[in-house]
Design brief:
25 strands, 20% helix, 8-stranded antiparallel barrel, 5 helices, globular, alpha+beta
Length: 413
Protein backbone atom coordinates (compact mmCIF):
# COMPACT_ATOMS: atom_id res chain seq x y z
CA UNK A 1 0.00 0.00 0.00
CA UNK A 2 2.84 2.40 0.87
CA UNK A 3 4.52 1.62 -2.45
CA UNK A 4 1.29 2.51 -4.31
CA UNK A 5 1.03 5.83 -2.43
CA UNK A 6 4.65 6.62 -3.22
CA UNK A 7 4.09 5.96 -6.94
CA UNK A 8 0.95 8.13 -6.97
CA UNK A 9 2.73 10.92 -5.07
CA UNK A 10 5.68 10.72 -7.47
CA UNK A 11 3.36 10.98 -10.47
CA UNK A 12 1.58 14.00 -8.99
CA UNK A 13 4.89 15.67 -8.17
CA UNK A 14 6.22 15.03 -11.64
CA UNK A 15 3.02 16.43 -13.11
CA UNK A 16 3.36 19.57 -11.04
CA UNK A 17 6.93 20.14 -12.16
CA UNK A 18 5.98 19.49 -15.80
CA UNK A 19 3.17 22.04 -15.59
CA UNK A 20 5.48 24.60 -13.98
CA UNK A 21 8.07 24.13 -16.72
CA UNK A 22 5.44 24.78 -19.42
CA UNK A 23 4.44 28.13 -17.89
CA UNK A 24 6.24 31.17 -19.27
CA UNK A 25 6.08 34.84 -18.42
CA UNK A 26 6.43 37.77 -20.76
CA UNK A 27 9.37 39.68 -19.36
CA UNK A 28 8.84 43.34 -18.61
CA UNK A 29 10.99 45.97 -20.28
CA UNK A 30 11.98 46.81 -23.84
CA UNK A 31 11.92 44.22 -26.63
CA UNK A 32 13.20 44.42 -30.19
CA UNK A 33 10.91 42.70 -32.69
CA UNK A 34 10.85 42.07 -36.42
CA UNK A 35 8.14 41.21 -38.92
CA UNK A 36 9.39 39.63 -42.13
CA UNK A 37 8.04 41.05 -45.40
CA UNK A 38 9.28 40.25 -48.88
CA UNK A 39 12.37 38.56 -47.47
CA UNK A 40 13.28 41.57 -45.31
CA UNK A 41 13.05 41.93 -41.55
CA UNK A 42 11.29 45.13 -40.50
CA UNK A 43 12.28 46.07 -36.93
CA UNK A 44 10.28 47.82 -34.24
CA UNK A 45 10.33 48.02 -30.46
CA UNK A 46 7.78 47.48 -27.76
CA UNK A 47 7.68 47.73 -23.99
CA UNK A 48 6.01 45.25 -21.66
CA UNK A 49 4.62 46.51 -18.36
CA UNK A 50 2.96 44.36 -15.73
CA UNK A 51 1.43 44.76 -12.28
CA UNK A 52 0.92 41.02 -11.98
CA UNK A 53 0.62 37.94 -14.19
CA UNK A 54 -2.95 38.84 -15.10
CA UNK A 55 -2.39 42.53 -15.81
CA UNK A 56 -0.02 42.92 -18.76
CA UNK A 57 0.16 45.89 -21.09
CA UNK A 58 2.31 46.31 -24.18
CA UNK A 59 3.23 49.61 -25.79
CA UNK A 60 4.23 49.66 -29.46
CA UNK A 61 7.05 52.20 -29.86
CA UNK A 62 7.37 54.27 -33.02
CA UNK A 63 9.36 57.48 -32.47
CA UNK A 64 7.43 59.43 -29.79
CA UNK A 65 4.26 57.35 -30.12
CA UNK A 66 3.36 54.74 -27.53
CA UNK A 67 0.39 52.69 -28.76
CA UNK A 68 -1.24 50.74 -25.94
CA UNK A 69 -2.10 47.06 -26.45
CA UNK A 70 -4.13 46.01 -23.41
CA UNK A 71 -5.54 42.69 -24.62
CA UNK A 72 -2.71 40.27 -23.91
CA UNK A 73 -3.46 36.62 -23.18
CA UNK A 74 -0.83 34.16 -22.00
CA UNK A 75 -1.58 30.46 -21.92
CA UNK A 76 1.21 28.09 -21.00
CA UNK A 77 4.14 29.06 -23.20
CA UNK A 78 2.18 31.05 -25.79
CA UNK A 79 1.02 34.67 -25.99
CA UNK A 80 -1.82 36.16 -28.03
CA UNK A 81 -1.70 39.95 -28.48
CA UNK A 82 -4.70 41.76 -29.95
CA UNK A 83 -3.42 44.76 -31.92
CA UNK A 84 -5.39 47.72 -30.62
CA UNK A 85 -8.49 48.58 -32.73
CA UNK A 86 -7.27 46.57 -35.71
CA UNK A 87 -8.53 43.13 -36.67
CA UNK A 88 -5.08 41.62 -36.26
CA UNK A 89 -3.06 39.65 -33.71
CA UNK A 90 0.46 38.59 -32.86
CA UNK A 91 0.55 34.97 -31.75
CA UNK A 92 3.88 33.66 -30.53
CA UNK A 93 5.64 31.09 -28.38
CA UNK A 94 7.53 32.40 -25.36
CA UNK A 95 10.94 30.94 -24.67
CA UNK A 96 12.77 32.88 -22.01
CA UNK A 97 14.08 36.07 -23.59
CA UNK A 98 12.61 35.42 -27.01
CA UNK A 99 9.33 35.23 -28.89
CA UNK A 100 8.66 33.49 -32.17
CA UNK A 101 5.40 33.37 -34.04
CA UNK A 102 3.19 35.17 -36.55
CA UNK A 103 1.66 38.57 -37.26
CA UNK A 104 -1.84 37.73 -38.50
CA UNK A 105 -4.42 39.92 -40.23
CA UNK A 106 -7.64 38.12 -39.39
CA UNK A 107 -9.76 39.80 -42.07
CA UNK A 108 -7.41 38.77 -44.90
CA UNK A 109 -7.06 35.26 -46.25
CA UNK A 110 -3.70 33.63 -45.43
CA UNK A 111 -2.13 36.88 -44.20
CA UNK A 112 0.45 35.48 -41.78
CA UNK A 113 3.92 37.00 -41.56
CA UNK A 114 6.86 35.66 -39.50
CA UNK A 115 7.37 37.52 -36.23
CA UNK A 116 10.11 37.28 -33.64
CA UNK A 117 11.36 39.35 -30.73
CA UNK A 118 14.23 39.47 -28.24
CA UNK A 119 14.03 40.95 -24.76
CA UNK A 120 16.45 43.67 -23.69
CA UNK A 121 17.53 44.84 -27.14
CA UNK A 122 17.05 48.61 -27.16
CA UNK A 123 18.12 49.38 -30.73
CA UNK A 124 15.94 49.32 -33.84
CA UNK A 125 18.33 48.91 -36.79
CA UNK A 126 21.94 47.83 -36.17
CA UNK A 127 24.33 50.76 -36.00
CA UNK A 128 26.85 51.33 -38.77
CA UNK A 129 30.52 50.51 -38.48
CA UNK A 130 31.59 54.06 -39.35
CA UNK A 131 30.37 56.43 -36.62
CA UNK A 132 32.72 59.28 -37.61
CA UNK A 133 31.30 60.08 -41.03
CA UNK A 134 27.51 60.05 -40.81
CA UNK A 135 25.65 61.84 -43.64
CA UNK A 136 22.90 64.20 -42.49
CA UNK A 137 19.42 63.47 -43.87
CA UNK A 138 17.64 66.16 -41.83
CA UNK A 139 15.31 68.53 -43.63
CA UNK A 140 12.24 68.88 -45.79
CA UNK A 141 12.19 67.09 -49.14
CA UNK A 142 10.13 67.06 -52.28
CA UNK A 143 9.50 63.34 -52.83
CA UNK A 144 8.23 61.17 -55.67
CA UNK A 145 7.11 57.58 -55.10
CA UNK A 146 7.09 55.47 -58.26
CA UNK A 147 5.09 52.27 -58.63
CA UNK A 148 5.25 50.81 -62.13
CA UNK A 149 3.94 53.74 -64.23
CA UNK A 150 2.27 55.65 -61.39
CA UNK A 151 3.96 58.52 -59.56
CA UNK A 152 2.75 59.89 -56.22
CA UNK A 153 4.04 63.23 -54.89
CA UNK A 154 4.95 63.50 -51.22
CA UNK A 155 6.78 65.63 -48.70
CA UNK A 156 9.49 64.00 -46.59
CA UNK A 157 10.36 65.41 -43.17
CA UNK A 158 13.36 63.93 -41.36
CA UNK A 159 14.91 64.88 -38.02
CA UNK A 160 18.37 63.46 -37.30
CA UNK A 161 20.46 63.47 -34.12
CA UNK A 162 23.85 61.88 -34.84
CA UNK A 163 22.79 58.56 -36.44
CA UNK A 164 19.21 58.41 -35.06
CA UNK A 165 16.41 59.55 -37.38
CA UNK A 166 12.66 60.11 -37.00
CA UNK A 167 10.27 61.54 -39.54
CA UNK A 168 7.39 60.87 -41.89
CA UNK A 169 6.06 61.34 -45.41
CA UNK A 170 3.01 63.47 -46.20
CA UNK A 171 1.02 62.50 -49.29
CA UNK A 172 -2.17 63.91 -50.88
CA UNK A 173 -4.21 61.26 -49.03
CA UNK A 174 -2.51 61.03 -45.63
CA UNK A 175 0.81 60.53 -43.86
CA UNK A 176 2.99 57.53 -43.04
CA UNK A 177 2.78 58.26 -39.31
CA UNK A 178 5.70 57.85 -36.90
CA UNK A 179 8.76 56.51 -38.72
CA UNK A 180 11.88 55.68 -36.73
CA UNK A 181 15.34 54.43 -37.62
CA UNK A 182 18.92 55.47 -38.17
CA UNK A 183 21.72 56.03 -40.63
CA UNK A 184 24.06 53.05 -40.93
CA UNK A 185 27.12 53.14 -43.18
CA UNK A 186 25.62 55.93 -45.27
CA UNK A 187 22.14 54.41 -45.66
CA UNK A 188 18.98 55.89 -44.17
CA UNK A 189 16.70 53.21 -42.69
CA UNK A 190 13.21 53.89 -41.32
CA UNK A 191 10.46 51.54 -40.21
CA UNK A 192 7.02 51.42 -38.65
CA UNK A 193 4.74 48.77 -37.21
CA UNK A 194 1.49 50.20 -35.86
CA UNK A 195 -0.53 47.00 -35.47
CA UNK A 196 -1.91 46.96 -39.00
CA UNK A 197 0.76 48.22 -41.40
CA UNK A 198 4.41 47.26 -41.77
CA UNK A 199 6.61 49.86 -43.50
CA UNK A 200 10.29 49.80 -44.43
CA UNK A 201 12.10 52.71 -46.10
CA UNK A 202 15.73 52.97 -47.13
CA UNK A 203 17.68 55.59 -49.05
CA UNK A 204 21.18 56.70 -49.95
CA UNK A 205 22.35 60.26 -50.56
CA UNK A 206 23.90 61.07 -53.92
CA UNK A 207 26.72 63.56 -54.53
CA UNK A 208 24.21 66.29 -55.44
CA UNK A 209 22.17 65.67 -52.27
CA UNK A 210 19.37 63.76 -54.01
CA UNK A 211 18.00 60.76 -52.11
CA UNK A 212 17.34 57.52 -53.95
CA UNK A 213 15.51 54.80 -52.06
CA UNK A 214 13.12 51.88 -51.79
CA UNK A 215 9.84 51.48 -49.92
CA UNK A 216 8.35 48.14 -48.87
CA UNK A 217 4.90 47.58 -47.38
CA UNK A 218 3.18 44.34 -46.46
CA UNK A 219 3.49 41.17 -48.47
CA UNK A 220 3.89 42.57 -51.97
CA UNK A 221 4.11 46.37 -52.33
CA UNK A 222 7.49 47.79 -53.35
CA UNK A 223 8.10 51.28 -54.70
CA UNK A 224 11.12 53.36 -55.65
CA UNK A 225 11.39 56.90 -54.37
CA UNK A 226 13.52 59.94 -54.95
CA UNK A 227 13.78 63.11 -52.90
CA UNK A 228 15.28 66.55 -53.33
CA UNK A 229 15.64 68.95 -50.40
CA UNK A 230 13.12 71.75 -50.84
CA UNK A 231 11.85 73.95 -48.00
CA UNK A 232 9.02 75.09 -50.29
CA UNK A 233 7.77 71.62 -51.20
CA UNK A 234 3.97 71.42 -51.31
CA UNK A 235 1.12 69.06 -52.13
CA UNK A 236 -2.13 69.48 -54.10
CA UNK A 237 -4.87 71.37 -52.27
CA UNK A 238 -6.64 68.81 -50.05
CA UNK A 239 -9.92 70.68 -50.49
CA UNK A 240 -9.97 70.37 -54.28
CA UNK A 241 -9.44 66.62 -54.73
CA UNK A 242 -12.90 65.38 -53.70
CA UNK A 243 -15.91 67.47 -54.70
CA UNK A 244 -19.62 67.40 -55.47
CA UNK A 245 -20.66 66.63 -59.02
CA UNK A 246 -22.25 69.41 -60.99
CA UNK A 247 -25.88 69.93 -60.02
CA UNK A 248 -25.42 68.71 -56.45
CA UNK A 249 -25.07 70.76 -53.28
CA UNK A 250 -26.06 68.25 -50.60
CA UNK A 251 -25.06 64.83 -49.28
CA UNK A 252 -27.86 62.31 -48.84
CA UNK A 253 -27.68 58.83 -47.37
CA UNK A 254 -29.60 56.33 -45.30
CA UNK A 255 -27.20 54.01 -43.44
CA UNK A 256 -27.66 51.78 -40.37
CA UNK A 257 -25.93 52.68 -37.11
CA UNK A 258 -24.12 49.99 -35.10
CA UNK A 259 -27.47 48.86 -33.68
CA UNK A 260 -29.09 48.58 -37.10
CA UNK A 261 -31.21 51.73 -36.85
CA UNK A 262 -31.37 53.84 -40.00
CA UNK A 263 -29.64 57.22 -39.88
CA UNK A 264 -30.18 60.11 -42.29
CA UNK A 265 -29.09 63.73 -42.42
CA UNK A 266 -32.81 64.52 -42.47
CA UNK A 267 -33.13 63.21 -38.90
CA UNK A 268 -34.27 65.88 -36.45
CA UNK A 269 -31.12 65.68 -34.32
CA UNK A 270 -29.06 67.15 -37.19
CA UNK A 271 -31.47 69.94 -38.11
CA UNK A 272 -29.95 73.43 -37.97
CA UNK A 273 -26.57 72.03 -36.99
CA UNK A 274 -23.15 72.12 -38.55
CA UNK A 275 -22.50 68.47 -39.43
CA UNK A 276 -19.08 66.91 -40.04
CA UNK A 277 -19.03 63.65 -41.97
CA UNK A 278 -15.99 61.45 -41.43
CA UNK A 279 -15.42 58.82 -44.12
CA UNK A 280 -13.14 56.30 -42.41
CA UNK A 281 -12.36 52.67 -41.60
CA UNK A 282 -11.28 51.03 -38.35
CA UNK A 283 -8.48 49.32 -40.31
CA UNK A 284 -6.94 52.71 -41.19
CA UNK A 285 -4.24 54.14 -38.85
CA UNK A 286 -4.64 57.67 -40.27
CA UNK A 287 -8.37 57.33 -39.50
CA UNK A 288 -7.46 56.26 -35.96
CA UNK A 289 -5.42 59.46 -35.56
CA UNK A 290 -8.27 61.54 -36.95
CA UNK A 291 -10.82 59.82 -34.70
CA UNK A 292 -8.70 60.60 -31.66
CA UNK A 293 -8.64 64.26 -32.65
CA UNK A 294 -12.36 64.35 -33.46
CA UNK A 295 -13.27 62.59 -30.21
CA UNK A 296 -11.52 65.11 -27.98
CA UNK A 297 -12.67 68.02 -30.11
CA UNK A 298 -16.31 66.86 -30.08
CA UNK A 299 -16.39 66.44 -26.31
CA UNK A 300 -15.28 70.07 -25.98
CA UNK A 301 -17.51 71.51 -28.74
CA UNK A 302 -20.68 69.42 -29.04
CA UNK A 303 -22.77 71.99 -27.17
CA UNK A 304 -22.02 74.61 -29.84
CA UNK A 305 -24.45 73.09 -32.32
CA UNK A 306 -22.08 70.69 -34.06
CA UNK A 307 -22.53 66.98 -34.85
CA UNK A 308 -20.07 64.44 -36.20
CA UNK A 309 -21.12 61.28 -38.02
CA UNK A 310 -18.51 58.63 -38.78
CA UNK A 311 -19.27 56.73 -42.00
CA UNK A 312 -17.50 53.39 -41.59
CA UNK A 313 -16.17 51.57 -44.64
CA UNK A 314 -14.93 48.23 -43.35
CA UNK A 315 -12.97 45.28 -44.73
CA UNK A 316 -15.99 43.01 -45.10
CA UNK A 317 -19.56 43.65 -46.31
CA UNK A 318 -21.01 41.72 -43.36
CA UNK A 319 -22.94 44.11 -41.04
CA UNK A 320 -22.20 42.14 -37.88
CA UNK A 321 -18.48 42.13 -38.62
CA UNK A 322 -18.42 45.85 -39.43
CA UNK A 323 -20.49 46.93 -36.43
CA UNK A 324 -18.31 44.81 -34.11
CA UNK A 325 -15.16 46.53 -35.38
CA UNK A 326 -16.71 49.98 -34.97
CA UNK A 327 -17.94 49.15 -31.46
CA UNK A 328 -14.44 48.12 -30.47
CA UNK A 329 -13.00 51.35 -31.82
CA UNK A 330 -15.63 53.39 -29.96
CA UNK A 331 -14.66 51.64 -26.72
CA UNK A 332 -10.89 51.84 -27.21
CA UNK A 333 -10.86 55.50 -28.23
CA UNK A 334 -13.74 56.57 -25.96
CA UNK A 335 -15.71 58.19 -28.80
CA UNK A 336 -19.11 59.75 -28.14
CA UNK A 337 -20.22 60.94 -31.58
CA UNK A 338 -22.39 58.99 -34.03
CA UNK A 339 -21.38 56.18 -36.38
CA UNK A 340 -23.03 54.38 -39.27
CA UNK A 341 -22.02 51.38 -41.37
CA UNK A 342 -21.68 52.78 -44.89
CA UNK A 343 -19.97 50.04 -46.93
CA UNK A 344 -16.62 48.43 -47.64
CA UNK A 345 -13.13 49.86 -48.09
CA UNK A 346 -13.17 49.26 -51.85
CA UNK A 347 -13.01 52.87 -53.10
CA UNK A 348 -15.02 52.21 -56.25
CA UNK A 349 -17.83 50.63 -54.22
CA UNK A 350 -17.54 53.33 -51.57
CA UNK A 351 -18.02 55.92 -54.29
CA UNK A 352 -21.28 54.22 -55.25
CA UNK A 353 -22.64 54.78 -51.74
CA UNK A 354 -22.24 58.56 -52.17
CA UNK A 355 -22.94 59.08 -55.89
CA UNK A 356 -23.06 62.87 -55.55
CA UNK A 357 -19.26 62.89 -55.04
CA UNK A 358 -16.82 62.76 -57.94
CA UNK A 359 -15.34 59.76 -56.15
CA UNK A 360 -13.99 58.58 -52.80
CA UNK A 361 -10.24 59.05 -53.11
CA UNK A 362 -9.05 58.43 -49.58
CA UNK A 363 -9.88 57.25 -46.10
CA UNK A 364 -10.25 59.45 -44.18
CA UNK A 365 -12.16 62.19 -46.00
CA UNK A 366 -13.98 64.93 -44.11
CA UNK A 367 -17.12 66.67 -45.38
CA UNK A 368 -18.30 69.92 -43.76
CA UNK A 369 -22.05 70.63 -43.96
CA UNK A 370 -23.59 73.95 -42.95
CA UNK A 371 -26.77 74.44 -40.95
CA UNK A 372 -28.64 74.88 -44.22
CA UNK A 373 -27.76 71.28 -45.11
CA UNK A 374 -25.44 72.24 -47.94
CA UNK A 375 -21.88 70.98 -48.36
CA UNK A 376 -19.37 73.76 -47.69
CA UNK A 377 -15.98 72.01 -47.88
CA UNK A 378 -14.53 68.56 -48.49
CA UNK A 379 -11.08 67.74 -47.12
CA UNK A 380 -9.33 64.67 -48.54
CA UNK A 381 -6.95 62.79 -46.24
CA UNK A 382 -5.64 63.73 -42.81
CA UNK A 383 -2.43 65.30 -41.60
CA UNK A 384 -1.73 63.56 -38.31
CA UNK A 385 0.36 64.18 -35.18
CA UNK A 386 3.53 62.70 -36.69
CA UNK A 387 3.72 65.68 -39.08
CA UNK A 388 4.38 68.25 -36.35
CA UNK A 389 3.73 71.78 -37.61
CA UNK A 390 1.47 70.46 -40.38
CA UNK A 391 -0.76 68.84 -37.77
CA UNK A 392 -0.94 72.11 -35.86
CA UNK A 393 -1.87 73.93 -39.07
CA UNK A 394 -4.56 71.34 -39.79
CA UNK A 395 -6.13 71.85 -36.36
CA UNK A 396 -6.09 75.62 -36.78
CA UNK A 397 -7.71 75.36 -40.21
CA UNK A 398 -10.30 72.85 -38.95
CA UNK A 399 -11.34 75.12 -36.08
CA UNK A 400 -11.43 78.14 -38.36
CA UNK A 401 -13.70 76.29 -40.79
CA UNK A 402 -16.16 75.24 -38.08
CA UNK A 403 -16.15 78.70 -36.50
CA UNK A 404 -16.81 80.26 -39.88
CA UNK A 405 -19.74 77.92 -40.54
CA UNK A 406 -21.25 78.54 -37.13
CA UNK A 407 -20.94 82.30 -37.51
CA UNK A 408 -22.20 82.32 -41.09
CA UNK A 409 -25.18 80.13 -40.39
CA UNK A 410 -26.02 82.00 -37.20
CA UNK A 411 -26.13 85.25 -39.14
CA UNK A 412 -28.39 83.69 -41.76
CA UNK A 413 -30.84 82.48 -39.15
Amino acid sequence: MNRVCYIVFSMLLTGCFAKKESLETLKTGIWRATVEIQGKEVPFNFEVKSNNANDIAIYLINAEERLLLDEVEIKGDSVDIALHIFDANIKAMIKGDSLKGLFIKNFAQNYRLPFKAVHGQLYRFPRGTNQLEIPDFSGKYEVKFVHEKDTTPAIGIFNQVRDSVTGTFLTPTGDYRFLQGNVADGTLQLSLFDGNYVYLFSASKQMDGTLIGKYYSGKTLMESWTAVKNDNASLPDAEKLTYLKEGHERITFNFPDVDGNNVSLDDGKYKNKVVILQLFGTWCPNCMDETRFFSLWYDENKDRGVSIIGLAYERKPDFTYASTRVRKMIEKLNVSYDFVIAGTDDKAKASETLPMLNRVIAFPTTIFIGKDGKVKKIHTGFTGPSTGVYYEQFKEHFNATVNELLAEDTALN
